[in-house]
Amino acid sequence: MVVADRRALRRLLLTAVPSAFAFTFAGPTVAAQGAARRPHVSVMLSGAVDTRTASHNETIDGAFRTLAVQVSRPLFTVRGVHVAWLGEVMPAMLVTAGAPPNRVPTPATDPTEANDPRRLARYQVRDAFGVGFAPLGAESAWSLNANTHLLFNVTSGVAWFSRVVPYGKATQANFTVAPGLFLERRVGNRQAMAVGYQLHHLSNASMGGANPGMNSHIFSVRVSTRR
Question: Is 30 helix (H, G, I), strand (E, B) or coil?
């Protein structure tokens, strides 16, 4: 089993192409397994219902919206659970973020930041546009019935924004990870629709001198087509 898992991991890394973000699953019956081995492509629209700092779990007066393209490729099946490699490209990201009021520097708490108008502007609520690429991911699928699946996935990668996100000493470049849970329903021979929740985390690993990070509670709608 360990050898099989290592081989599956090597396949995951070798097939990570910078083309998209996706989800996939194997078919519920033996007859469908050949078709289910094909790559899957999907498009997902997402919007956050709550945004918070990752460092202190404080509310950010902001928003997080993305358009994502997903690609996945089935790897193996274990006890009826279908496992696939999952990759993602986010060509359009819109983040509105700023510092919680108690994190805005003052001359008493941080005179260097507070007395520099350009630095202080980094703490104000503002929009930032970005792009993201998450080639390291996986998805597991459970068949609830012939047309309905429960999906758990996670993606990991990087994102770059036109301004620092979320605020202050954060950076324009961030690492990302996003676990998610989805319910999918097939709506045709080659199409499926899914709705779900993701916890999207981004942070800079303290590359900017501080790492407030940002956690977004996201609801998503996805449409996929099997090639």
Answer: helix
Alpha helices in the chain (DSSP H): 2-14, 33-36, 111-114, 117-120
What the block records as the tokens of 199 is 């916890």
Structural tokens at position 43: 């498009």
Handedness of CA 32, 34, 35, 39 (dihedral sign): positive
Cβ atoms 75, 67 nearer than 8 A:
no
* Confidence (pLDDT) at 22: 36
Provide the β-strand partners of residue 194. Answer: 184, 222
Length reported for the chain: 227
pLDDT at 204 over 50: yes
The pair of three-digit structure tokens given for residue 84, joined into one six-digit string: 């696939």
Q: What is the assigned CATH class of domain 2-226?
A: mainly beta
Across 4-26, average pLDDT: 37
In 3D space, the residue among 215, 85, 120, 196 whose CA is nearest the CA of residue 151 turns out to be: 196
Check: CB of residue 174 under 8 Å from CB of residue 166. Answer: no
